Amino acid sequence: MTFAANRLDTAMAETLPLLPEERSWSFIDMLSVKGGLAIATWGFLFGGATGQLVGFIDGLIALTFGTALGIGLLFFALVIPVHRYGCESFVFMRSAFGPRGSSLLAVPFVLGVVPFWMAILASMAGGSAEQLLVSISLVTAANEMPLSTAIALGVLVLGCVVAAFGSEGLRLLNLAVLPLLVMLSLSLFVAVIFSSGWSAILEAGPIAPPYDRGTSFLLAVELNIVAGLSWFGLAANLGRYGKSPRGAIWGSWLGLVVISLLPCLAGLASSLALGSADPVEWMTPLLGPALGLSMLAVLILANLSSVVGMLQGNMATIVQNFGPLARRLGYGGILVALTLAASGIVLLATDALYTGFYSIVAFFGAMFSAAIGVLSADRLALRRGTLLVGALHDPREGLSYAFWHGINPAAFAAMATGSAVYIAFLEPVSQVPGPMFAATTATLPAALAAFAAHFLLTRWLVIPTGRGGYRKNLSWARFSCFSH
User: Fold this and answer.
1) How far is it, in rounded angstroms, from Cα 213 to Cα 22?
2) Looking at domain 25-465, does it have CATH number 2.60.15.10?
3) Which of 54, 94, 147, 369 is least surrounded, with the fewest CB atoms within 10 Å of its CB?
4) Does the predicted model carry a pTM greater than 0.90?
């Protein structure tokens, strides 16, 4: 009991701002954690979704460029400054949105994204396990409690237990499983090539693509940009543990971009050559029952590591932005609450998850891209990299980042502008591109619109009132935001 209490106390302490001497992850640690997060069943699905739009070469370019662009935008707006200051990602966002405003964003972003992704990961692991075990006649399909649901709940419970060990549990888990996850992705990719032939994969095209090649290609790029942006606060929060800026940034970049491409490419190739991005449907016929079962175990580990990362990486956000109730619950109480929420989604809404998966991803893409624009304008153009770290953690009225009763209306207006632009270019529910989408995608104009709106509204409305602490960082004798 004492050991468990000590571990929870240590994990709770890690949710507070981290000083340089408190950061313990090396480059290898960061690479393992971020790579372990990136390799999961959703990687195969994103690759498969890309294969429904374009062929292999176009898909390879869309996956690489889209993921790199999404992660790149996220790095400059959030990951790099959060590592520099050691604060939680939404606490850093207080300089743009205000302390109450940032918390208003944190609640829907975290409660909307974290249980959703956890349920998706667990459901995919459970569905894959049941499908494979039934196909090789080890079990029979159940009518009451499907085996897939039982396994999904087991993955969530085990993830909760591992996450209770804090950053150390996440680090050790991914150090152990990342080589297996890389082997899994490469093995499945090679199996598809040997089964179908390299030329067949290159020549295969998407079945009945809904648009012309150019529009379909940009839709594939947009899908992968949003996949990169969807790491949002999680990538930044986990980046705080890096001992050095170089190790944190390169470990995160290689893990979230390079390693994440491995399952995506396997899903892309299998979608084009075999008609399915789900490896469970063709794993056993290609590899045999014994090797198929081994791969299944690694696939479940992949999803488990991502569940643990989702829990651990978002814990600081909840503790620092959800108010006194979250702090009273404590680290263990929050873990249990998130696990119960994800379990409820698994039990009640699994079908709805799969039906609305890409629409939900696109909906959050509209918000994330707009938030990236606001944060970029605030940090690069308005504050020019200057931040009062102490003021971020002291939300009293009248201090630098208090704005109006803790909320900056200019930032929210800019974010609404960016989100509206995104929806005009790509409607999230039906995912029908607008007339201008084929020239620009949706994320870039949304981020640029939010950037411009926040810059202009702040200059014209906020700075003249003396709020927000901008006068200390700017000389308005020059208009250029990058002049020195």
Assistant:
1) 50
2) no
3) 147
4) no
Which has the closest alpha carbon to 25: 163, 234, 172?
172
Identify the band that residue 483 occupies on the pLDDT scale cut at 50, 70 and 90: very low
- Select from 87, 380, 35 the least CA-distant residue to 231: 35
Closest CA to 187 of 271, 286, 117, 92: 286
Q: At what angle do helices 56-74 and 261-274 cross, to 10 degrees?
A: 150
Q: How far apart are CA 247 and CA 268, in angstroms?
A: 30
Instruction: Report the pLDDT value the prediction gives residue 6, as an integer from 0 to 100.
Output: 56
Beta bridge partners of 407: 404
Tokens of 373: 């624009």
- Average pLDDT along the chain: 83
Taking the C-alpha atoms of residue 185 and residue 98, their distance in angstroms, rounded to an integer, is 43
Residues 164/288, Cβ–Cβ less than 8 Å: no
CB 230 within 8 A of CB 310: no
How far apart are the C-alpha atoms of 449 and 370, rounded to whole Å?
Answer: 8
92 vs 90: CA distance, rounded Å: 5
Where are the chain's structural domains? 25-465
* Token pair of 114 as six digits: 């974290």
Q: What is the pLDDT of residues 305-360, one digit of tens each?
A: 889 988 988 888 888 888 888 888 888 888 999 999 999 988 887 666 666 666 77
